[in-house]
Amino acid sequence: MFYKYKVALFSLLTFISASCLSVSSEDVDYELTRAQYFVRSNPKQSQAILNQIKNINSLSDEQKVAFYTLKMRTSLILNKLEAVEPHLDSLFALDDKSAFADKLVTILSGSGIWLRKSNYFDAAQQVFSCALKHTEKSGQRISILISSAIVARHQQNYAIAISLYNQAAAIAKKLDNLRAIATIENNLGAIAMDQGDIKQAELHFRQALSGFQRTNNHSGHINSGINLLFTFIIQNQDINYQRLYPHISKLSDEYPDNSKKAYLFWVDSTYTHSQGYKLPTTVKDNLYSSFDKLAGPQLQALIRTYLATRLDIQLPPVTFAKARLFENKSWYTKVLNCNW
């Protein structure tokens, strides 16, 4: 009798344990879905959800790949570059799994963006080249081409960057992907600014602004709007500036991005100065201190060239990050082979 009781109790515990494992797996899937939902709208919330998932080694292959991919993406969005590479190591350790193959282009895209942000420009281009070989979806192909073009601009390979953007634009137009078209136009405008072709930059920024307005993309709307205001100042187009500024200023006030606010502060201070107003020393001091908040050395160089000189503000030379050589890590060797 006692033996039968022990057998029954053991069977019950086994059943309960199996049930708990099943529920736990379902719970993980639910949390991964929640984290995915918040990736772009609230990446900090997404990371907080992911941090609650424990015992990663006990997850299924699909769950592991989803977990590390989301960790990689949120770290990139939050610019926590030092946190990205361990997630890449974990992902590429699973590269023989079907779950990895299903997410291959997303993983390669994230890897390339991390390399680019870390100034490994040549390695980033190698990764994007591999990603293009495995990209079947047109939307993903657009994103990879844009990412590759951004690297080419960093390398000042403008002809290559423009060619890549034109390839992406051709696909985006076929799909009527207005947001991608607007992004491409804005980035082509930035290249035109680099090359000193302000009129061409204005035309690109006008197209970008229109596209971002139609797709309700607030970040792109503000950025392309400030870019356009910048060209108006350089070309002394006061009426165009006065028409656009109130709208862009209102959007910028409502949007939580200090780099955009710093950019608009520089642009509007220069316009105010051009109207015959002498800027107080405090404003000039604030401009100087806000220079470091601008989004990257390329924009800083343009501000220094076109605006600081007008305001008689002496800024230090802009330091561009030197390209770095990426160490031949095991996962990067796999990318170079690109055999998936």
UniProtKB/TrEMBL annotation:
Q: Which residues form the signal peptide?
A: 1-20
PROSITE patterns named in the record? PROKAR_LIPOPROTEIN (PS51257)
On whether Disulfide bond is a keyword of this UniProt record, the answer is no
- Give the record's keywords alphabetically: Signal
Pfam families in the record: TPR_12
InterPro entries per the UniProt record, alphabetical:
TPR-like_helical_dom_sf
By its UniProt entry, which SUPFAM superfamilies does this protein fall under? TPR-like
Name used for this protein in its record: Tetratricopeptide repeat protein
This chain's source organism reads Pseudoalteromonas holothuriae
